[in-house]
Specification:
39% of the residues lie in helices and 18% in strands. With 397 residues, the protein is α/β, with parallel strands linked by helices. α11 (295-316) runs parallel beside α13 (371-396).
């Protein structure tokens, strides 16, 4: 007999009752160090007093009104995001997939408004992950996710990651823009080089294309800057955000320069729930913390400490770990054993991680994590490595 919940998840047999900071507790009182943070979503950890207070206070007043009316919290949050980014305007939605859908629609509409309606195609990259709607499955381009859902949505072309020659060869008169994750999360914590991102910006300028960045996972401080594009010293034309944007309350956003934002006129795009009072109260609380003086610097420092510890683990367990990837608190280790084996061994040690593509294990803790908790996570991961090491050595024979 099928479960009342549809069987589309392979859920671990864990149920958490409450959390404190970087820790989660089950009903038996067992505690787990959370280096998955809801897949990079619980940006301020669990039970953060400022965030929970903001949510509770807003819930007492009004939770939902719809976008038929002004929402002061959304206006405030949009203004703060504009001031902290390249963007001139913001659209709020509910998830990363929705944000990427809005981004692609805005790109196509911008070209249509400019008298080039034939320019609908978006160049994406091998290893990408942009969401699970039918269109974003096509933007992702991974046959594993597309199987069984019929023909792909037309309009997406894929080229190798970090390959400028392939990118330029894929541009046609129908190309509207480029969509890229600065660091591919689901794809295995694969980083676009700084030079590649700069070359993409220059290529878009040369061919009159729009540069779109999917910062659903890299945005909101995870790499040590508010947005990952800042490391390359460039600006996109449009960008998607979600995950850590509201600290665990569902929220996505499309940030755009004026030329792109003006394409979304009344009736062209919308959402029932997006940018509602509750989500924006949470989002503004997250921004209060992230934009406080010195907080992003702390993320960069703690992330560097974690990355150095992972490098040491690679040296200590070369039969288990082969490479450290990522930046700051978006970290990954490529495994020489199945990453799910290591993930399960880590759970047995009380450490939560997230598997990714290319046989990588992600470590993406809350942004409030400290070095002492990184030390604890590294120790637990080391014990997990010792557990799987015999199998790793056997595989290496």
């Amino acid at each position: 007999m099928i479960s009342p919940l549809m069987p589309n998840y392979n859920r671990a047999d864990l149920a958490f009752e409450h959390g404190e900071g970087a820790w989660l507790f089950d009903k038996a009182g067992r505690r787990f160090l959370d280096f998955g943070s809801g897949i990079a979503t619980s940006s301020l950890g669990h039970g953060h007093p400022h965030l929970t207070r903001a949510i509770a206070e807003q819930a007492k007043r009004v939770i939902h009104v719809s976008n038929l009316y002004r929402i002061p919290g959304a206006e405030l949050m949009a203004q703060r995001l504009v001031e902290a980014s390249f963007a001139d305007s913001v659209f709020f939605c509910n998830s990363g997939a929705e944000a990427n859908e809005g981004l692609v629609k805005a790109m196509r509409k911008t070209m249509s408004d400019a008298g080039q309606p034939e320019r609908i195609r978006i160049i994406c990259f091998d290893g990408a992950f942009h969401g699970r709607t039918l269109a974003m499955l096509s933007a992702t381009g991974n046959p594993k996710y597309q199987a069984g859902f019929g023909p792909a949505v037309d309009g997406f072309d894929h080229v190798p990651f970090n390959n400028l020659n392939a990118l330029r060869a894929a541009i046609t008169p129908q190309t509207a823009g480029i969509l890229i994750e600065p660091i591919q999360g689901e794809g295995g914590i694969r980083s676009a080089s700084v030079q590649f991102l700069r070359d993409l910006r220059a290529t878009c300028d040369e061919f009159g294309l729009l540069l779109g960045l999917d910062e659903v996972q890299t945005g909101m401080g995870r790499t040590g800057k508010l947005f990952a594009y800042e490391w390359a010293g460039i600006e996109p034309d449009v960008m998607s955000l979600a995950k850590g944007l509201a600290g665990g309350v569902p929220m996505g956003a499309v940030l755009a320069k004026e030329r792109v934002a003006r394409a979304l006129v009344p009736g062209s795009h919308g959402t029932t729930f997006g940018g509602g009072p509750l989500a924006c109260a949470a989002g503004n609380a997250v921004l209060d913390v992230l934009l406080a003086p010195g907080f992003l610097d702390e993320i960069a420092a703690t992330g560097g400490y974690l990355q150095a510890g992972l490098e040491k683990l690679c040296q200590d367990y070369p039969s288990v770990f082969t490479e450290v990837r990522g930046q700051a608190l978006l970290a990954g280790v490529k495994c020489a054993v199945p990453n799910t084996d290591l993930q399960n061994a880590a759970v047995a040690e009380g450490l939560l991680t997230v598997a990714a593509g290319d046989n990588v294990l992600r470590l993406i803790p809350p942004l409030i994590v400290r070095q002492a908790e990184c030390d604890e996570a590294l120790a637990r991961l080391g014990r997990a490595a010792r557990h799987v090491q015999p199998a790793a050595l056997e595989m290496a024979k």
